[in-house]
């Protein structure tokens, strides 16, 4: 079923007097009102991101509150191998505190690992980082955003000195002359986002999409480039080569607002059009057309998403597109520049307040003495007790149970058994732990392996703030009561901090935690000091940085200057090397992974919602009919897809929208359809992002296909 065919109710069931809040899922954070009996959601017209639109996940979000297997009591395993059985909160929290004490006594503070998520509110993400550093005093904390935004973040910091997803309000998009979307399929990943692109096109702007598949998004583009996976960097360098050759470089902008262009100008000499066509498979005239569309006005925007970023060279790939945007003189102009599409609900805020291994609140660096001093003063501790940087997400998961790795893991807001690269290995690492505690509202594939499971409240049952893809801080409001027996993550952290006799205060009130976060972030790059719940309410959200209550907030942080020491954006020369795992005789096909409209991430939430399961019931592999014929695979048959790390068995979907040399599997399912059994763990050297987007596989018809007939 195509995206447009999926059923979206035409007349929503209105939630009379519903509480205004935002969707539980992605970074668009569509506005919705929640209320009524039974509880329903209604889209809000007053939120610019969605202006009355929702995707199918948003429409069905109320069902998440009442999924039949919602957890409402803590669960505990008496000993290794024993089943998970209901217990009291006292027993569960005492057990966790007891295991922490036992393991830290034996192996030191870093024996405990913490893993967070970009879906947590700012308040939770902040409190989790603080909990790790001063209650557990472990350096071993990271979060799933490392799997999501980290390459774009690293490139943004390197070029602009600040990691902000979109360079301006989402309503700027409609005013762009052209938008080039690299490795993003927003028609499925953020459907209401398409409205902004459509409006731009109606005003005469052009949409260029770069994706190895002709996706639902690419079908609506004026130009679609279909490169081989993992070759975007070469494509960007090739476009810059053409821009220089065609005299499209904005020399005034380059002279006034940037540094380092000469080295890049020289380095892209080597990316002459024919060579780039050979590397990428994109015909030279298409490249030329893309550059002309981008260069014809100065309000063009280059956007990257996971397709360009989730590579072992993701940071450099994003850098190549930033180089192109800078040379064309785009950044800093309304509607123009470079931006990346943040993914998770609080992907932006979740990477600012200290759940990242190397970071303290306000996007401060944990190894910066002044930052440590500032944050320690807010926390009421000696800076000496704050540990140094820890391992990145994949490295942390890979070290679980190892001699020098964490022996226990506390997990909040992620399901790595499904979503981590080479998840078969990660499952083994998790099994090697002495102790695992998971806070979730459903028994996810990872929670199922825990020794203690803590049933937590979810989006519409609690309040807090989320920072959306624009960098706008929004209020998530409590609309319904949580079921009996459930506690919030802030209550869980407070209960544990108390048992661990942690220093500092551990409020369970989101508003109080937010005030502390404001103080901790004050003066940092992501400064929230001037943002209050009241302002968010009256102003429809506030853009950071916002250093004081009389500051208007910063919708367009690069308008006047960049946030580097000299205020100039930095060009950095980067070179193409291709995927970490190229194809060969044994594994002749590229596998790319990604998303479908109806499911969210590891699927822990959406695989429990009937209309979403109906829309997209099972995992599948997209194969070009020519490749299918060569592989002996027919439409609808089960096919075995094997990489050097594992095998999955999924149903074949023959489509002529994908390249002949590439197959696509979404990663939302567990068990034999788990795409991450196949993926590669090669890491980007700067961001530590794993190469989720490309690895080498072979295809075989599943033996049972014949036997069934
Ligand atoms: N329905 C739905 N929506 C979501 C989510 C979800 O799970 N489901 N998750 C949210 C989150 S956390 C995120 S990060 C965003 C992700 O949003 P997107 O980045 O839009 O989503 P993906 O499907 O991961 O990848 C986008 C495209 O990258 C392409 N691609 C793969 N390899 C390459 C390559 O080498 N080069 C190029 N140019 N393209 C390539 C794929 O074909 C795919 O169409 O979505 C958010 N929204
Ligand atoms: N092959 C492949 N793998 C990928 C990707 C890809 O494109 N391809 N994309 C990667 C990306 S971009 C991402 S973001 C990751 C995401 O993958 P995961 O980190 O696994 O994300 P989710 O499935 O959203 O997991 C969130 C879990 O936390 C629970 N949860 C939600 N909200 C809360 C809360 O407030 N508190 C608590 N305690 N629990 C909560 C949910 O029920 C769910 O079980 O996957 C990555 N993995
Ligand atoms: S686009 Fe994202 S925020 Fe909007 S309704 Fe869908 S999942 Fe929710
Ligand atoms: Mo993500």
Give the gist of this structure:
The chain has 709 residues and is α/β, with parallel strands linked by helices. It contains 24 helices and 28 strands. The model is unreliable at 1-14 (pLDDT under 50).
Describe the structure in your own words.
The chain is α/β, with parallel strands linked by helices and 709 residues long. It folds into four domains: 3-66, N-terminal domain of TfIIb (Single Sheet), CATH 2.20.25; 75-147 and 346-414 and 449-543, Rossmann fold (3-Layer(aba) Sandwich); 151-340, Dimethylsulfoxide Reductase, domain 2, CATH 3.40.228.10; 589-708, Barwin-like endoglucanases (Beta Barrel). It contains 24 helices and 28 strands. The protein has a seven-stranded mixed beta sheet with strand order 5-4-18-17-16-6-7, covered by helices on one side. It has a six-stranded mixed beta sheet with strand order 24-26-25-28-23-27. One ligand MGD is lined by residues 117-120, 144, 147-148, 306, 310, 343-344, 412-416, 418-419, 439-442, 444, 456, 489, 593-594, 601-602, 604-605, 667, 675-676, 679, 692. This is Assimilatory nitrate reductase (NADH) alpha subunit apoprotein. InterPro entries: Asp_de-COase-like_dom_sf (IPR009010), MoPterin_dinucl-bd_dom (IPR006657), Mopterin_OxRdtase (IPR006656), Mopterin_OxRdtase_4Fe-4S_dom (IPR006963), Prok_molybdopt-oxidoreductase (IPR050123). Residues 8-69 form the 4Fe-4S Mo/W bis-MGD-type domain. Keywords: 4Fe-4S, Iron, Iron-sulfur, Metal-binding, Molybdenum, Oxidoreductase.
């Amino acid at each position: 079923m195509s995206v447009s065919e999926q059923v979206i109710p035409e007349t929503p069931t209105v939630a009379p007097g519903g509480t205004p809040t935002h969707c539980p899922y992605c970074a668009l954070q569509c506005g919705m009102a929640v209320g009524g009996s039974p509880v329903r959601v209604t889209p809000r017209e007053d939120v610019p991101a969605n202006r009355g639109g929702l995707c199918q996940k948003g429409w069905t979000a109320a069902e998440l509150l009442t999924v039949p297997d919602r957890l409402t009591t803590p669960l505990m395993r008496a000993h290794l191998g024993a089943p998970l059985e209901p217990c009291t909160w006292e027993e569960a929290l005492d057990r966790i505190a007891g295991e922490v004490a036992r393991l830290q006594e034996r192996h030191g503070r870093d024996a405990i690992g913490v893993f967070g998520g970009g879906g947590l509110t700012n308040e939770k993400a902040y409190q989790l980082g603080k909990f790790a550093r001063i209650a557990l005093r472990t350096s071993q904390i990271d979060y799933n955003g490392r799997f999501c935004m980290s390459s774009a973040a690293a490139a943004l910091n390197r070029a602009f000195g600040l990691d902000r997803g979109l360079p301006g309000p989402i309503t700027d998009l409609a005013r762009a002359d052209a938008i080039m979307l690299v490795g993003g399929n927003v028609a499925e990943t953020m459907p209401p986002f398409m409205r902004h692109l459509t409006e731009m096109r109606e005003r005469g702007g052009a949409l260029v999409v770069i994706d190895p598949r002709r996706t639902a998004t690419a079908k609506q583009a004026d130009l679609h480039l279909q490169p081989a996976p993992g070759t975007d960097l070469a494509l960007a360098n090739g476009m810059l080569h053409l821009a220089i050759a065609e005299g499209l470089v904005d020399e005034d902008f380059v002279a006034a607002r940037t540094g380092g262009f000469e080295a890049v100008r020289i380095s892209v000499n080597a990316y002459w059009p024919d060579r780039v066509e050979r590397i990428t498979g994109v015909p030279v005239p298409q490249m030329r057309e893309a550059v002309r569309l981008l260069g014809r006005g100065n309000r063009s925007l280059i956007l990257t998403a996971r397709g360009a970023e989730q590579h072992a060279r993701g940071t450099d790939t994003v850098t190549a597109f930033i180089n192109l945007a800078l040379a064309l003189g785009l950044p800093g102009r309304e509607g123009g520049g470079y931006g990346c599409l943040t993914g998770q609900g609080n992907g932006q805020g979740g990477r600012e307040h200290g759940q990242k291994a190397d970071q303290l609140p306000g996007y401060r660096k944990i190894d910066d003495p002044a930052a440590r001093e500032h944050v320690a003063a807010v926390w009421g501790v000696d800076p000496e007790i704050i540990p140094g940087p820890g391992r990145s997400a994949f490295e942390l998961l890979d070290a679980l149970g190892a001699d020098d790795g964490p022996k226990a893991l506390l997990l909040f807001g992620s399901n790595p058994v499904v979503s981590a690269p080479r998840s078969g290995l990660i499952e083994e690492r998790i099994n090697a732990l002495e102790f695992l505690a998971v806070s979730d509202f459903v028994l996810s594939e990872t929670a199922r392996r825990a020794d203690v499971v803590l049933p937590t409240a979810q989006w519409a049952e609690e309040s807090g703030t989320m920072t959306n893809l624009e960098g706008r801080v929004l209020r998530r409001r409590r609309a319904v009561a949580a079921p009996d027996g459930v506690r919030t993550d802030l209550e869980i952290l407070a209960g544990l901090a108390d048992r661990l006799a942690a220093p500092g205060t551990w409020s369970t009130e989101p508003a109080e935690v937010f005030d502390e976060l404001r103080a901790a972030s004050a003066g940092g790059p992501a400064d929230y000091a001037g943002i209050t719940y009241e302002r968010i309410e009256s102003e429809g959200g506030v853009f950071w940085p916002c250093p004081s209550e009389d500051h208007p907030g910063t919708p367009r942080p690069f308008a006047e200057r960049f946030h580097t020491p000299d205020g100039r954006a930095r060009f950095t020369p980067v070179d193409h090397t291709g995927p970490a795992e190229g194809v060969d005789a044994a594994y002749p096909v590229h596998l790319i992974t990604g998303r479908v409209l109806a499911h969210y991430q590891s699927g822990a939430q959406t695989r429990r919602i009937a209309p979403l399961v109906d829309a997209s019931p099972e995992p599948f592999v997209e194969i070009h009919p020519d490749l299918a014929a060569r592989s002996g695979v027919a439409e609808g048959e089960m096919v075995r897809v094997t990489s050097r790390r594992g095998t999955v068995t999924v149903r074949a979907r023959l489509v002529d929208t994908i390249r002949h040399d590439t197959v696509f599997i979404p990663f939302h399912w567990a068990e034999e359809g788990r795409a991450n059994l196949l993926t590669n763990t090669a890491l980007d050297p700067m961001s530590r992002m794993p190469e989720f987007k490309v690895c080498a596989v072979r295809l075989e018809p599943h033996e049972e296909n014949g036997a069934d007939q």
